[in-house]
Amino acid sequence: MTSAIVVSGLHKSYGSTHALDGLDLEVATGEVHGFLGPNGAGKSTTIRVLLGLLRGDAGDVSLLGGDPWHDAAKLHRRLAYVPGDVNLWPNLTGGEVIDLLGRLRGGVDQKKRADLLQRFDLDPTKKGRTYSKGNRQKVALVAALASDVELLILDEPTSGLDPLMEEVFRQCIEEERQRDRTVLLSSHILSEVEALCDRVSIIRRGKVVETGTLSDLRHLTRTSIHAELAASPNGLASLPGVHGLDVEGNRVRCEVDTAQLDAVMRQLSASGIKSLVAQPPTLEELFLRHYEDDAEPLAAVR
Amino acid sequence: MTDFAGTGTLVRLALRRDRVLIPLWIVVFVVMAAGSAQASIDLYPDVQSRVEAARTANASPALVSLYGRIFDESSLGAVSLFKLTAFGALLVALLAAILVVRHTRAEEENGRLELLSAGVLGRYAAVTAAFIVSAGTVVLLGLLTALSLMGVGLDTRGSLAFGLTWASAGLAFAGVGAVTAQLSEGARTANGFTAIILGVSYVLRAIGDAKSDTGWVSWLSPIGWAQQIRPYAGDRFVVALLPLVLLVVTVLGALALIRRRDLGAGLVRPRPGPATASAALRSPLALAWRLHRGSLYGWGFAFLLLGFLVGNIASNVDGFVTSESAKELVQKLGGVDAITDAFLSTEMGVLGLLASAFGIQAALRLRSEETALRAEPLLATGVTRSRWLGSHVLMALFGTGVLVLLGGLGSGISSGASLGNMGRQLPRMLAAAAVQLPAIWLVTALVVILFGLAPKLVTAGWVLFGTFLLIGQFGAVFDLPQSVMNLSPYGHTPRLPGGDFSASPVIWLTVIAAALTLASFTTFRRRDIG
Ligand SMILES: Nc1ncnc2c1ncn2[C@@H]1O[C@H](COP(=O)(O)OP(=O)(O)OP(=O)(O)O)[C@@H](O)[C@H]1O
Ligand SMILES: [Mg+2]
Question: Keywords assigned by UniProt (chain B) (predicted)?
Answer without folding.
Answer: Membrane, Transmembrane, Transmembrane helix
